[in-house]
């Protein structure tokens, strides 16, 4: 071996000293900076792979809430064709469920006692026990049930008697299907359903009465609650009342809830009766409107 081959050539300066080992492959290239220092080994090789994924975080909201139970409905009508049509219509809504049907008032009372519905669709003119008496019996036995009266004429002479019996609203039998389903939901929520024609009928009924009867429970009602009661009796909706009194919807609902409790009323329909019977609102003469009040639409809460 010559000095050239070993000392300076392949080993000293070339392959080992400066080239492949010193600066190239080992010093700066593949090992020093590339694969190990910063490149593949330094960053890439240590990054999380499929087997080292970050653990899943728990959902702070918890499992999704169960959907609300369907509104249970009983249908009472002495006409089999109408009764069957209502049953098909109500059963087609995913949030409503027909729990039973009845061909007269006596049967309606029995079915309601057995299945405990949320709403009863009640015809007025039925054999044996009429719809008014059946409404009174059902409402007396079950505080939570709501009765929606089905009428043929919008000025039915039984309007006042039905409201006194505990009915939460009235609906014409030729009402569009979507409106009927919406009405069931309204009364199921605890609101009243009074159309303008029903309100006019109530005014006519009270105008014929000789004098208002005292209502001692009104003594416990605050001035603000009297304002709310007066506007409810005039047929204003919740939205209209909040605008007239400049209060929030939540505050208004608190006032209405207190009125229901203090006056022993089931819903807004009975609040209307209490306001007229006590003389707080005089039939045939509208109470002085508050600043900003809007004309009442007379269709209950919207």
Automatic annotation (TrEMBL):
Domain HTH luxR-type intervals: 214-279
Domain of life of the source: Bacteria
4-aspartylphosphate PTM positions: 123
Keyword vocabulary terms for this entry: DNA-binding, Phosphoprotein, Transcription, Transcription regulation
GO molecular function list: DNA binding
Cross-referenced CDD domains: LuxR_C_like, REC_NarL-like
Region named Disordered: 1-62
One Pfam match: GerE
Name of this chain's protein: Two component transcriptional regulator, LuxR family
């Amino acid at each position: 071996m010559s000095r050239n081959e070993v000392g300076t050539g392949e080993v000293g300066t070339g392959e080992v000293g400066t080239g492949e080992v010193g600066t190239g492959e080992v010093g700066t290239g593949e090992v020093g900076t590339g694969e190990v220092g910063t490149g593949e080994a330094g960053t890439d090789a240590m990054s999380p792979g499929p087997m080292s994924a970050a653990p899943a975080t728990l959902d702070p909201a918890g499992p999704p809430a169960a959907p609300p139970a369907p509104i249970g409905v009983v249908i009472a009508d002495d006409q089999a064709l109408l009764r069957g049509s209502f049953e098909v219509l109500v059963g087609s809504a995913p949030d409503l469920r027909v729990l039973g049907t009845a061909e007269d008032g006596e049967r309606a009372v029995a079915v309601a006692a057995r299945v405990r519905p949320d709403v009863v669709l009640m015809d007025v003119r039925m054999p044996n026990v009429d719809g008014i008496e059946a409404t009174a019996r059902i409402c007396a036995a079950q505080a939570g049930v709501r009765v929606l009266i089905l009428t043929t004429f919008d000025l039915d002479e039984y309007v006042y008697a039905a409201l006194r019996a505990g009915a939460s609203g009235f609906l014409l039998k030729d009402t569009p299907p979507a409106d009927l389903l919406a009405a069931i939901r309204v009364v199921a929520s605890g609101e009243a359903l009074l159309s303008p024609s029903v309100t006019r009928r109530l005014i006519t009924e009270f105008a014929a009465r000789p004098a208002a009867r005292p209502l001692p429970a009104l003594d416990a009602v605050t001035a603000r609650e009297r304002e709310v009661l007066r506007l409810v009796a005039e047929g204003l909706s919740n939205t209209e009342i909040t605008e007239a009194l400049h209060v929030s919807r939540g505050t208004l609902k608190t006032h209405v809830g207190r009125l229901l409790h203090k006056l022993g009323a089931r819903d807004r329909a009975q609040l209307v009766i209490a306001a007229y019977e006590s003389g707080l609102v005089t039939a045939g003469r509208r109470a002085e409107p508050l600043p900003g009040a809007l004309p009442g639409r007379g269709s209950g809460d919207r």
